[in-house]
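Researcher: Let's run the pair from yesterday's discussion. Sequence first, then tokens, for each.
Model: Starting with the first of the pair.
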Amino acid sequence: KIVGLASKLGIHGPVYFEIKQLLDADFELGEGLNTSLQNVMAIAELERGASEAAIRRWRELLNTAQFIDAGERAWMYRNLALALRNRGDTHSLKFAESCLISSCDAFLESGCKVDAAYSLKFIAKLYESRSFDEVVQKYEEILEILNGKGVFDDEIKANFLHSKGRILLQAERHIEAKDAALEAAKMRNSILGAEEERMSSLHLARIAAEKESDKSTIQFCNSEIEKLEDTNPSDHFALGKKISKLMKGEDIENAQSIL
């Protein structure tokens, strides 16, 4: 019961010894339960700082991947990738990348399209400590993979485009950042309930346009933002007004940090 509660709460390290006792017990756990406990044990090891032990355990489990439920297998591949990231070397990053693609495939097999997309999004996160240009390249590759696997719906694609736009802005590739953000905003215009996300994309596009002194895009974004602010009173839109004030005061750096 304690192990189950820890899993629901997402806290595994404190129950490391309880899991170990179950795995070392003389009674038969059954293949499915044993696999799940081994997975939880690996997470606990990772939380306790024993990343190499966690990596070994996940690799051993995934050697019998055909016998593991697709959803659980997907999480194992993703967790293994995040553990490999801690090593930081190029070989481990490449291996982590392949694990995330396998995680995407397993999530698709289990019918979880959104989780499949986010496994791929982690590929870009693996490279965040490197150059912005390398991260942008990874977003380009991810978008191609998503297209090829048929993962996209409009909000997933808009989310990726917005994230790509933020990285492009940081890389000072302002025109590309503006185009990515505008495309995200356009897609979100047709998605019911995505007004807040569209606002964020419009602000991102406007910041990029400010960098290029693109007056027509700035005017377009201002107009669309004002419409959203007028028709959607909420805390998020109040934040949007704060960004607008920062922009008008030419405090672009602080405005960018909020997005």
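Model: Moving on to the second of the pair.
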Amino acid sequence: GDFAIALTASSTPEAILFGMPNQGGGAGGAPDSAKYVVSEAHASLSAELIIPRMAGHPDTPASSPNTEDDEFPGSSLDVKWTQDGTPTITVTKSHVLIENTTINGTTQIRGIRQTAPATPWTATCKFAIVPVISGVNNEWCMGMLLHDTISGRYEIYGMGMFSVNELRLGRVRQTSLTAFSSYATVGHVAAYKCMSGYLAITDDGTNLLYKLSIDGYMPLTTILSESRTTFLTNGPNRFGLGVYQFQAEAHLSVDWFRR
């Protein structure tokens, strides 16, 4: 929000009011500079105010982004993304919304993906999930997507509900977009049905490391780790964002995706 700084010169108080950027999310994060220039408050006062830098905020875009990075500006998906399945994609207000509202009694993965770089790499996203239906036998998982185009296999890593009515961190595997294989969950996260946070996957050339940070300031913690070819036979050569669902709608909102 806004705040005021009162400066005194020649015994005459002069107030300068200026706004600080909202750090709440997306590309409108913390400033890249610690210097703000305002109009002169008094002839003997400089127009430059040096304030503490807010660098390091997790939502601050990189000064030199990688080609895979996306802050989702504008109103359409960048051409570097390929859609998997038939998700409903909406790009607005520096977010992408990935939805699948088709419930037809089959397991489904829907999402967007792009070519992964040579290892090692780490991909990170800031996400929010809002499921519509939950309960036993209404399964879903939303977050990051991995794909091995040679074997055709997929993984979704993120937050979900897996045959129990509570939120868990987990990973779903399918041998195709519609053929379920298995899932693994990591403990009870919360009894709430919507959540936001930061997910990351690292492919170090040998193992896949699945990571989580609730607020972006806490270090990304490795939740799962295994060989990169345990399920994705040749290792992942595509990465991105996606949803898995069975008898439940899926709605995933992502502020940004970065490598």
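Researcher: Give me one sentence on the second I can quote.
Model: The chain is about 0% helix and 50% strand.
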